[in-house]
Write a structure and sequence with these properties.
The chain has about 250 residues and is of the alpha/beta class. Helices cover about 40% and strands about 15% of the residues.
């Protein structure tokens, strides 16, 4: 790695894309801080990989500040995100709206705000935001979720303006359908979510997203992949329609 990145902080690190990123970074002998709600999955990843587990509710800004104090982060992956419902905005509850904004958007801004001063002082770093194609191409029943992802993209664009002249890179990933546990609660469990969304479909795997991130890290320091839209080959570009596999 010609960018001299040695330490990473990954949020939403206990499963899915976050877990895959932690594993990919550890394979590169990076020091990895894995942050997520405390549970057995987070502990297992720490045991398996040697990453440092941090059980934390990212809605708690004081806890975030305590976490990053004294932590020199070269690579920040703002991956934590939720999608608690699939229904029209008109029937969304205030609690659901607040949770989506707090986890998907506000937490990423707070973590970035706390990590950036060290990156600026060292003039070295790469910040990733886990967006979604839903942030650019609205779909039914995900209005608030899409809004949080669009806001992440807008924030990243503004952040690049503020960092003009520095060596800090900023990348937004905008995946299409990725086979994660994001929809388990909506469909009533992983088996039902898999049947509805992934059986007979060539969905992107979390390790594929991790590979995209490590590829971006390995580019020469003069190159910043600012926005990366990653779709399954059989998913319509910029849309939610995806074709089934045929025998």
């Amino acid at each position: 790695m010609n960018t001299n990145y040695t330490t990473a902080l990954v949020t939403g690190a206990s499963r899915g894309i976050g877990e895959a990123i932690v594993r990919a970074f550890r394979e590169r002998d990076m020091t990895v801080h894995a942050a997520a709600l405390a549970d057995d999955a987070l502990d297992a990843i720490a045991r398996d990989t040697g990453a440092m587990a941090h059980g934390i509710d990212l809605r708690d800004t004081a806890a975030i500040a305590a976490l990053v104090t004294g932590m020199d982060v070269d690579v920040l992956v703002n991956n934590a995100g939720i999608l608690p419902e699939l229904q029209p905005f008109t029937v969304s509850t205030p609690a659901t709206i607040d949770a989506l904004i707090d986890v998907n958007l506000r937490a990423a801004l707070h973590v970035t705000n706390l990590v950036l001063p060290g990156m600026i002082a060292r003039d070295r770093g790469h910040i990733f935001f886990m967006g979604s194609i839903a942030g650019r191409h609205p779909t039914p029943n995900t209005a608030t979720y899409g809004a949080t992802k669009a806001a992440l993209h807008a924030f990243a664009e503004g952040l690049r303006c503020d960092l003009l002249g520095s060596a800090i890179r900023v990348t937004v990933l905008m995946p299409g359908r990725v086979q994660t546990r994001l929809y388990d609660g909506i469909f009533g469990g992983n088996d039902k979510a898999t049947e509805a969304l992934y059986d007979d479909f060539d969905a992107i795997q979390p390790c594929d997203i991790a590979a995209v991130i490590t590829s971006a890290l390995d580019l020469p320091p003069r190159v910043d992949l600012t926005t990366i839209e990653v779709l399954p080959t059989k998913q319509i570009f910029g849309g939610s329609t995806i074709s089934r596999n045929t025998q």
